[in-house]
Specification:
7 strands; two-stranded antiparallel sheet; alpha+beta; DNA-binding transcription factor activity; about 230 residues; five-stranded antiparallel sheet; 3 domains; SH3 type barrels; 7 helices; single chain; Arc Repressor Mutant, subunit A
């Protein structure tokens, strides 16, 4: 990567407003921490509004004006496709947000590059998800984010009904259906739950603790290293 491109990417990564450590930036750019610290120091000397220090992290001052965001053709393709997929397959609120995001992406581009959005010829036709599923997505996502225990009835493939109390961890889309991954108290293990088989979903006021062996990262590690997780 050319040094000029590397410096531009550093500024682009820091635009998020999040504090990023030198190690995180170096890993994203695939350079050594020493090179990263030297690049940041050079940017600061030229007036780029980077605040922070080695060992703490870096970000950009939000009150400074920066030139318009530029994207490579590949980055723009990824952003537009991602927004189209979110709009086609996400919840009701995600659909609205995805359309707004596409407008903001287009507005952020220099005028001469705005036609690139229309030239992204990758599309995501919507699946016929019931309105109930789209509405349920937002409730379940909030429960995952806030660690609220969920209680609901669930029907397996044979139609057998059970009552579940779970620790919701994340939502996954499998091409034609959404599933909830959770730690199931009944099974004392991870389980997938299809949203279209969940009944009378109740988000409780009970907050569950994130325990080692029951977290989303533990589930992902298990899937990568062992046989697939059992069905509900």
């Amino acid at each position: 990567m050319r040094r000029a491109d590397r410096l531009f990417r550093i500024v682009s990564l820091l635009r998020s407003g999040r504090m990023l450590t030198g190690a995180q930036l170096a890993e994203r750019l695939q350079i050594s921490p020493r090179t990263l610290y030297r690049d940041v120091a050079d940017l600061q000397r030229t007036g780029t509004p980077i605040i922070g220090e080695a060992g703490v992290g870096y970000t950009l001052r939000k009150d400074d004006h920066l030139p318009p965001m530029h994207f490579t053709p590949e980055e723009l393709t990824a952003l537009v496709l991602g927004a189209r997929m979110a709009g086609a397959w996400g919840s009701e609120s995600t659909q609205i947000a995805a359309n707004d995001a596409l407008l903001k992406i287009e507005a952020a581009l220099p005028a001469e590059h705005r036609s690139r959005v229309d030239r992204v010829l990758l599309f995501a036709p919507p699946f016929p998800h019931p309105a109930r599923t789209r509405k349920l997505l937002d409730r379940l996502h909030n429960a995952c984010a806030e660690n609220y225990v969920l209680r609901f009835g669930y029907a397996d493939e044979a139609g057998r009904e059970t009552e579940r109390a779970v620790h919701p961890l994340g939502l996954f889309f499998w091409g034609n259906r959404w599933t909830l991954v959770a730690w199931c108290r009944r099974r004392d293990d991870f389980r997938h739950f299809r949203l279209d088989r969940m009944r009378e979903v109740a988000v409780s006021d009970e907050v569950f603790a994130s325990r080692r062996g029951q977290r989303l990262e533990d589930f992902i590690r298990k899937v990568r290293s062992e046989k697939p997780t059992a069905t509900a």
